[in-house]
Amino acid sequence: MNKTRELLQNSLLAALEATDPARRLAVEARRLEPEPTAVLAVGKAAGPMLAGLERAGLRLPGFGVTRYGHGVPLAHFELLEAGHPLPDAASVRAAERTLEFSRALGPEDHLLVLVSGGGSALWCAPWGLELGELQELNRALLASGATIAEINAVRKHLSRIKGGRLAQATPARVTAWLVSDVPGDDVSTIASGPTAPDPTTFADALAVLERYRINSPAARTHLERGAAGMLLETPKPGDPLFARVKNEILLANADLLRVTADFWEREGWRVHILSDRFEGEARELARFHAALVQSARAHGFPFEPPFVLVSGGEAAVTVRGEGRGGRNQAFLAWLAYFLGPDGVWALAADSDGIDGNSPAAGALLRPDTLARAAELGLDLRAHLDRDDSHGFFAELGDLVVTGPTHNNLNDLRVVVVEP
Q1: Which residues of 383-396 are buried (b: 16+ CB within 10 A; e: fewer)?
Q2: What is the pLDDT of residues 275-322, one digit of tens each?
Q3: Omega cis (within 30) before 85
Q4: pLDDT for the residue 177
Q5: How far apart are CA 148 and CA 132, in angstroms?
Q6: Residue 358 CA, distance from chain mean position
């Protein structure tokens, strides 16, 4: 195996191991004051977060919910599974049970809520529309190119549990520990902020539907009623209820980037972390990275080769074709397109192990990717036009397949610019 390819793959695995939620929770649980009396967990990292509590010796009433196939063995806690990225009937049952459990607590209780990405679909309590209508709306939002903050502004105003409504539903003191999968680590956006004040409004949610031309009559009717003051808004910043609620980020994309940089520095490379807050179209993000590489090679700025670029955040893909893939595979395909024959080694992957609608976490790019594609008769631009980055990298044997990682810290991109 090529040395650089091996380093790229190992850097991803090392970063995931170093940011294991179970390990972090086992340490953090020992500092909780007062000790919690109940626990709820939601998201792709719900299993390891509950496992961390078990390692710390906590045995509490409560349960968690995660995506199908993302469960882990637990000795004490019950872990349900439900639909993601689209909610299903199990998501509705999990949310109803969560609300019922929370309402039964008293003001003397201390509820620990463990939140990670994916919670928006896994806790689904539809408000103003039926589950099928909500599924169609979510499908349209996910394909629209909207940012996660925009998508969740809509979700929060069509739910009885999101946008701070879980905290509103319980009289207990609440501590929420969050594993962040959103750029900027906004607690009101992670899993649609079930325990966080919501700065968005019904009018904001309506504007998202308008901006991306999303047609959902039931959602529009509900949101219009809310914008007209006929429905109760989500609890806002400054609401007295949040005096008994604490939201704290335990792990974030920045942690993933730091440990990745440490890995490459130990291997003797100069590393530049660009940002943990990239958003926007994968195509434009690839164009930006390609421009950095080309400038460095031509002029020695902003960095003199050799070096490694590390970046995170969450790109988006406005889906127009019928192919498979995700934002990370699309990023690499566009990076190959913009660099042309002067390619690089690079890796891009979703830290949860699932990139878009594909079974891969991401893919690898090689300096000779275009040459190898030509030998196989692959037309990169044709794959891009039908949003089939997955098919392109599958034909080349360059997919990165991890399976569920039981983590969710957004995306990791590593670009190696050799001498």
Answers
A1: bbeebbbbbbbbeb
A2: 999 999 999 999 999 999 999 999 999 999 999 999 999 999 998 888
A3: yes
A4: 98
A5: 21
A6: 15
Alpha carbon distance 133, 365 (integer Å): 39
Task: Quickly tell me which residue has 């000790």 as its tokens.
Answer: 35
What would be the CATH architecture of the domain defined by 254-417? 3-Layer(aba) Sandwich (3.40)
Nearest CA to 71 out of 51, 98, 89, 94 is that of: 51
Strand partners for 175: 112, 246
Contact call for residues 364 and 8 (beta carbons, < 8 A) = yes
Q: Which residues of the chain, if any, have pLDDT below 50?
A: none
pTM of the model: 0.94
As a whole number of angstroms, the distance between CA 344 and CA 353 comes to: 23
What's the pLDDT score for residue 267?
Answer: 98
Report the SS3 class of residue 24: helix
Q: Where are the domains of the chain?
A: 21-251, 254-417
Q: Is residue 81 within 8 Å of residue 71, measured between CB atoms?
A: yes
Give how far the C-alpha of residue 167 lies from the chain's centroid of Cα atoms, to the nearest Å. Answer: 22
The pair of structure tokens assigned to 38 is: 């109940």
Closest CA to 253 of 407, 359, 42: 407
- Angle, CA of 257, 117 and 134, to the nearest 5°: 145
| Continuous segment of H or E residues that includes residue 102 | helix 89-103
- For residue 266, what is the enclosing H or E element? helix 253-266
* Predicted local confidence at residue 1, as pLDDT: 60
Report phi then psi at 394, rounded to 5.
-65, -40
Asked whether the bond before 87 is cis by omega within 30 degrees of 0, the reply is no
**Structurally, what CATH architecture does the domain formed by 21-251 represent?**
3-Layer(aba) Sandwich (3.40)
